[in-house]
Amino acid sequence: MITVEDKIRTFSKYVYEKELKIKEDVLSETKARLDRIVEEKQKEILEKCSTLETKQKKKIELEAQKKISQAKLKARDEVFEVKNMMMEDLISLVNGELRSFTESSEYEEWLIRLLDSNFTGDHDWTKVYLVLKDLENYAGRLNLKYPKVDFLEMDNSNIGGAVLESSKGTEKKDLSLKTRLDESHNEIGLLLQESWEKGDQ
Hints:
about 200 residues, alpha+beta, hypothetical protein PF0899 fold, 2 domains, four-stranded mixed beta sheet, 5 helices, about 10% strand, elongated
């Protein structure tokens, strides 16, 4: 049976791959442009060197290497900036998709299953934190299902999901969508790195 988590994972992968293709093209074009700039600088400087006296050639070559190094450093910085922008764009995209998910009918089912699966065993959860929208929509139903639990508001930056806390406050479990997004940063970074490495080959 395909779970909502599977759907989220499959959809997120589709979004990653689609956006990666777009970002790969941008990165490829940027790198090609910067490589041309470096090549043009090299040609320009070497042409100037060939017209100078031998006694000045060494000095000019050193200056040429300095300018080439500066051009390469600038190119590297621009590529790094493009990579950071790509990473931020993908994270922002996934954030938006998660927020859209919280507005769907599947989200309520997922949230209830999430809580049900964590109210088993020996855990003494007495407080559950939800974003305001979820409190307004589901608190009544959840209070009936878990009458000994206090349902409290957490910051809306958590997007959705829940944070569970034990009666003495000694145990806490963060099941918020924001935490899942934060944890996915590494996965997104790895996907981008693989894409960049392929582009460099």
